[in-house]
């Protein structure tokens, strides 16, 4: 019994291209040729091709299949390793589906770190604030990140939020100072309710200096000069209260 390349591909449930590729990478031996030059595949080729296709369908890479050779009794450790990889992939896909569901239900941007804070917190934030959260979630250490997450879960509201978000870059000094003084009590409550935010960045993966540099760069890019000045003025108000 012999078959052509197309016939054996059909029997194995694969494609001509796949059969040729398996020849090219050395997984499938080249068959003998008929007098007319056409390849003739036998039962052994079909069995080998079925084995390759089965392992590929299970998730084995072609290089790993080559390492297994012709042994039909696959090493238990190879199967266990593949099973662990598949379990990890399933878990990752399940997490992705959960996050996609949250994004769709709450209409939050895809860059929102759902593992840090609930999506409903993002809905109440400005685009700049959301972007800052996304950036800082990648550089903070575990302890500071947890304190940050607690703040986001609490989602404290400040009556001046809308004013701050809409503050034009050319706002005059009196407007900036007034807004800063009205923001200061809100910032004070945050500091009192979430003291962990003041902890040093001793557990930051890339060090405290890196966190400070990233935070400063993000602030400069996300907020206009008037908003940055209001932040500085509000901190000055709080500092004056402590020193007074």
UniProtKB/TrEMBL annotation:
Q: Report the superkingdom from the record.
A: Bacteria
Q: Does the keyword DNA-binding apply?
A: yes
**InterPro entries noted in UniProt:** DNA-bd_dom_put_sf (IPR009061), MerR-type_HTH_dom (IPR000551), MerR_fam (IPR047057)
Q: Which UniProt keywords apply?
A: DNA-binding
Q: Name one GO molecular function term.
A: DNA binding
Transmembrane segments annotated in the record for this chain: none
PANTHER family listed in its UniProt record: HTH MERR-TYPE DOMAIN-CONTAINING PROTEIN, REDOX-CYCLING DRUG-SENSING TRANSCRIPTIONAL ACTIVATOR SOXR
**Protein name, please?**
MerR family transcriptional regulator
């Amino acid at each position: 019994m012999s078959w052509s390349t197309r016939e054996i591909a059909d029997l194995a449930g694969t494609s001509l291209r796949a059969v040729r590729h398996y020849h090219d990478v050395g997984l499938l031996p080249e068959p003998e040729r008929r007098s007319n030059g056409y390849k003739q595949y036998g039962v052994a080729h079909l069995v080998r091709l079925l084995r390759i296709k089965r392992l590929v369908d299970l998730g084995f890479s072609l290089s790993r299949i080559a390492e297994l050779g012709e042994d039909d009794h696959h090493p238990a450790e190879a199967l266990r390793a593949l099973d662990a990889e598949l379990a990890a992939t399933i878990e990752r896909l399940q997490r992705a589906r959960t996050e996609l569901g949250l994004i769709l239900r709450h209409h939050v941007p895809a860059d929102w770190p759902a593992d840090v804070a609930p999506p409903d917190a993002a809905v109440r934030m400005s685009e700049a604030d959301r972007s800052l959260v996304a950036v800082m979630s990648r550089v903070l250490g575990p302890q500071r990140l947890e304190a940050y997450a607690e703040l986001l879960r609490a989602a404290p509201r400040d009556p001046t939020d809308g004013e701050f978000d809409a503050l034009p870059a050319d706002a005059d000094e009196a407007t900036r100072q007034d807004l800063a003084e009205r923001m200061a009590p809100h910032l004070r409550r945050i500091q009192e309710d979430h003291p962990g935010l003041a902890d040093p960045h001793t557990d930051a993966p890339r060090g405290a200096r890196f966190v400070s540099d990233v935070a400063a760069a993000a602030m400069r890019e996300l907020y206009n000069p008037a908003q940055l000045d209001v932040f500085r003025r509000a901190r000055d108000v709080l500092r004056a209260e402590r020193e007074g």
